[in-house]
Amino acid sequence: MSPVPYLKFAGPVLDEATIAGVADVLRSGWITSGPRVQAFERALSTFCGGRPVKAMTSATAAVEVALQLAGIGPGDEVITSAQSFFTVLNMIVKVGATPVFVDCDLVTRNIDLGEVEAAITARTKAIIPTHWPGSLVDMDALLALARRRGLRVIEDAALVMGSQWKGRNIGAIGDLVTFSFHPNKNMTTIEGGALVVNDAAEGERVDALRFHGITYRPDRTRDVAFPGGKFNLPDVNASIGIAQLARLPEFLATRRELVARYFERCATDPSCVLPPSPRTGDGQSWNMFCVLLPLDRLTVTRRELRDALDAQGIGTGVSYEALHLCTLGRSYGYKEGDFPATERIARETLTLPLHAGMTTTDIDRVCAALAGIVAGART
Ligand SMILES: Cc1ncc(COP(=O)(O)O)c(C=O)c1O
Questions:
Q1: Which candidate in 62, 191, 238, 376 could, as Cys together with 40 as Cys, close a disulfide (CB 3.0–4.6 Å)?
Q2: Ligand 1, residues 159, 170, 285: which to mutate, most atoms within 8 A of Cβ?
Q3: How far is CA 234 from CA 19, 34, 36, 38, in A?
Q4: For 243-340, where are the E strands, in sequence order?
Q5: Which residues contact residue 245 at a Cβ distance below 8 angstroms, ignoring those fewer than 6 apart?
Q6: Distances 41 to 18, 66, 199, 266, 320 between C-alpha atoms, Å
Q7: Cα gap 352→130, rounded to integer Å
């Protein structure tokens, strides 16, 4: 009998046409940013309701450039959720600003907007919320708050490419929006990301910020007035992005179907805290399926449980550690007990396999393995 293949917790679906498209770019004589990036940005702009979109080498680059575009630097504070990926903390610190953390909702995992309001000071310049799969930040409340308090908003939409707020794609509304096209995300360019901006002037500024700070003088010589980075996406990656964007609705439909199966299976085993249940036509996309484990009622640690799943050929992840309790976060004075929901999630969360290359049979296999381990480890 052949061994069961290892089930990765995330990963891309790449078809032969996409692979052939990469070969075409490699043979074309233009492999770094060029016509494919322009075509990818046009397609992304259409997806974002006609707003200007700039392709980048990662979402992390997009967040850094967004902060620079918003003029955020030393002396400024940026409010963000302690339950997110390291990108938000790192980029706030990298531009010289101060991260101000707030807690999240235990079930949706989205930033607590009530706590945001309370954390605003005279130094606050921006809010960076991370949208969670299955449930978006309340965009009406967020944008109203930002308008009322004169703050920029940088939406970390890395996990929700294809989610909709009241019928419009995330990216088509709001202020600055960042996407990730890392292989674990809803669509990929290998590494890559994008930044959605408000108008052509911001777009031109981003062009410079992502490419050495270069602008052109009338005599076609170059000038640099501020230090830019080097974050331009190559055409090879953009050609993958064009093909992936075309298949995004299909990928999202598969993910929805898989998540429905997780909910069906988990309903019969109430031991884990689940994300908010999906409803037909709710506009949500599902990049990850994260549960909270009943660790206080088990004789195994999360590490042991993950190792046991791994031994059965099932990969898992931890999304995410508490940002305020990593060494960099603590250096701003944060400590255990500051954000109870974030800390409980960081302790108990488990990311189960979910990607468009899976089948419902894979979900059944994961659920059976998890239920077996949990049943054998009850206190
Ligand atoms: C919530 C979130 N934001 C941002 C990022 C950064 O994305 P990238 O790897 O494209 O820089 C990630 C990556 O995993 C993420 O999970």
A1: 238
A2: 159
A3: 15, 7, 8, 11
A4: 289-292
A5: 40, 43, 44, 47, 187
A6: 17, 17, 14, 40, 30
A7: 20
pTM attached to this predicted model: 0.98
- CA atoms of 99 and 330, how far apart (whole Å): 11
Q: How far apart are CA 197 and CA 209, in angstroms?
A: 13
Give dist(CA 367, CA 41) in Å, integer. 39
Q: How far is CA 303 from CA 262, 295, 300, 307, 342, in A?
A: 22, 11, 8, 6, 19
| 23 torsion bin: left (phi>0), alpha (psi -120 to 50), beta (else) | alpha
Q: CB of 132 within 8 A of CB of 108?
A: yes
Q: Is the pLDDT of residue 147 over 90?
A: yes
The angle at the Cα of 132, spanning 59 to 79, to the nearest 5 degrees, equals 70
Check residue 34 and give its pLDDT: 98
Q: Which amino acid is at 365?
A: R
Q: Please tell me the residue having the least CA distance from ligand 1 atom 14.
A: 85
Active site residue 185: yes
DSSP 149: H
DSSP E strand stretches across 107-161: 124-128, 152-156
267, pLDDT greater than 80: no
How far are the Cα atoms of 197, 347, 353 from residue 300, in angstroms, in the given order? 47, 13, 20
Which ligand 1 atom lies nearest to the CA of residue 185? 14
Tokens of 334: 């944060």
Q: Does 1 or 319 have the greater pLDDT score?
A: 319
How confident is the model at residue 273, as a pLDDT?
Answer: 87
What residues does ligand 1 touch, defined as CB less than 6 Å away?
Answer: 58-60, 84-85, 87, 130, 156, 158-159, 180, 182, 193
Ligand 1 centroid to Cα of residue 317, in Å, is 14
131 close to 111: Cβ distance less than 8 angstroms: no
For 207-264, how does the pLDDT look when each residue is reduced to its tens digit (9 = 90+)?
A: 999 999 999 999 999 999 999 999 999 999 999 999 999 999 999 999 999 999 999 9
Band of residue 269 on the pLDDT scale cut at 50, 70, 90 = low
Answer whether 203's CB lies under 8 Å from 42's CB: no
What pLDDT is recorded for position 306? 98
